[in-house]
Amino acid sequence: MSLLAQTRISVLDLSPIRAGHPIAQSYADSLALARHVDELGYTRYWLAEHHNIPGVASSATAILIGHIAGGTRRIRVGSGGIMLPNHAPLIVAEQFGTLESLYPGRIDLGLGRAPGTDGLTARALRRDLTGRPEDFPALLMELRGFLAKPESSSPRRVRAIPGEGLEVPIWLLGSSDFSARLAGKLGLPFAFAGQFAPRYMLEALAIYRRAFEPSETLQAPYAMIGTNVIAAETDEEADYLSTSAKQHVLNLIRNDMQPLAPPVDDMDALWSVHEARAVEDFLGASIIGGRETVRKGLDRLIGLTGANEVMINAAIYDQDLRRRSFSIVSELKAEAAQAA
Asked: 325-340 pLDDT, tens per residue?
């Protein structure tokens, strides 16, 4: 049986700001995509917290999650992720308690320990400028305490209302071994950011599985991998569409972030040989191609990683073609299940 047939598929969205379009259009684009994949049967729709990036509109992540959840029917909506060191755990508990109260059983809380931005912006975000990524386990424990069911023998003086007792599902996100090890130790699901850190993916997943200890949350490891998938009717069309994502990463490498640009015919006119290698390394786990290329690529990636779920990012400028890309993946999954 095709591995794709057995594997859940989900969506990662940064609500990209497209060149020539206002930010409000980004939110309309995200909602249209969320409604589309909701109808297709995707499992989750996660939004990522980033700051001070001209091409990303998902900085106020909890607000955008509410917008997407309110405009969809079934799909789980969550954060991929909330960068916990940027926030007081009580505020996160209240925000996600509110979301869970509004959309019960549909909210996920994915957490990361990086700031999701540059150092200067991180200083502007932080409530405590002495905070370090190493403080993440303590912040996580505090947050989990606010979301846990209260104990009558030891009433809390500070409570997350709403939030207390709702036990919103928590995921740990990472692009290295730190969160993988912590997720395993705590018996939590783990999501690896393969969409931008592919070279560390297998090592992090192995560490997570070795470190895993069963918990009330999970009896066995549950690993999700993020990856970029750009699917089209032909390999040539997909390669052309992927030049928007490649320009985005090229700008990141140059520290010159811009809105998502339309595709171009020739990337060689834009980058040096060294830059081309850096972009390809960044996008190393990406699957770009026509139907058969994407089907084989997803089966190969799932087989290599043993992932329980794949979360797909697709930085495609044309929104009709972006939605079509997600349709193709859904069709490939349905075809694989039918053939089983």
From this structure: 999 999 999 999 998 7
